[in-house]
Design a protein that fits this description.
Length: about 280
């Protein structure tokens, strides 16, 4: 090393961390970076593992933001809620971009380690399931793949026992338009969400009177943004799976691409999409 090599310490940078918290200490990197354990000698298995581990971290952040957004909504703190919803949309944009990396893996690459996965599958991600439950896509049958993890089942059941985020949005909508929540349809507040005519009519009032209901209009568009990114994530998932395994069954036993395509038809906020044809 040459004697005139730049030393950041001369400009004030701390160069010794023997007695202080370092970057790795704060982020617990020893724990994170030692959790990638391929079961085969296939080169691309490391890509597959990291893709899914990082996706789970982004989903953890999405759930953190959605929980805070729901709390802010209940407190009528729409400014904070809008910021959090915008962040969730960007998280799904980030998850979308990750598919581009995974798609560099060819069918031949994946076939070298696919059998090592056994029946494990992203279908079993309880965090993804929780995101769906929070947003309002609630199918109690989807608790079954998580039965082997009681803690996950408890978290999911607790979510099913409370109003979803979209339930809270609808209550907020009725309260702002009518001054009360009594007319919110029971079918909206219980079970999987389907388009409800009276809710769609309320949103139509908002879209036809934007200046009078700007906050509700902005909320609606934030939700459409979020679902737009969420749909793209689902679509890219389908495309990636079809590109790599074609129409084979998924490792978790689903019909693979056919199952994923069926999920593309699920709408989180159907009234907001349906009313566009009426404006």
């Amino acid at each position: 090393m040459t004697s005139n090599a730049y030393d950041p310490g001369t400009d004030g940078a701390k160069m010794s961390y023997a007695d202080a918290m370092s970057y790795g200490d704060y982020l617990k990197l020893d724990g994170i970076l030692t959790q990638q354990h391929p079961l085969s000698d296939a080169h691309d298995e490391m890509l597959f593992i990291i893709q899914h581990q990082t996706s789970e971290l982004w989903m953890k952040l999405a759930l953190h933001e959605l929980a805070a957004a729901r709390t802010a909504l209940r407190a009528d703190d729409t400014a904070q809620m809008f910021k959090m919803l915008a962040r969730v949309s960007r998280i799904f944009e980030q998850l979308n971009n990750a598919w581009d990396v995974l798609r560099t893996m060819t069918p031949a690459d994946y076939s070298k380690f696919r059998e090592d996965l056994g029946p494990s599958s992203g279908f079993q991600s309880h965090q993804y399931r929780l995101i769906e439950f929070v947003l309002g896509n609630r199918n109690p049958n989807m608790l079954k793949p998580h039965a082997h993890v009681p803690e996950a089942v408890q978290i999911l059941q607790e979510e099913l026992a409370r109003p979803s985020f979209y339930d809270e949005v609808v209550r907020h909508l009725f309260r702002k338009l009518d001054g009360h929540e009594a007319d919110v349809p029971a079918e909206q507040l219980d079970g999987p969400h389907l388009a409800v005519p009276i809710i769609q009519a309320k949103w139509k009032v908002v879209y036809e009177n934007v200046d009078a209901y700007w906050d509700l209009y902005e909320l609606a568009e934030k939700l459409v943004d979020l679902e737009d990114y969420f749909r793209r994530w689902r679509f890219n998932h389908v495309t990636t799976v079809e590109r790599i395994i074609g129409f084979k069954r998924g490792t978790g036993g689903t019909s693979g691409v056919d199952y994923l395509k069926r999920m593309l038809n699920v709408e989180l906020f159907p009234e907001l999409w349906n009313l566009r044809g009426e404006l």
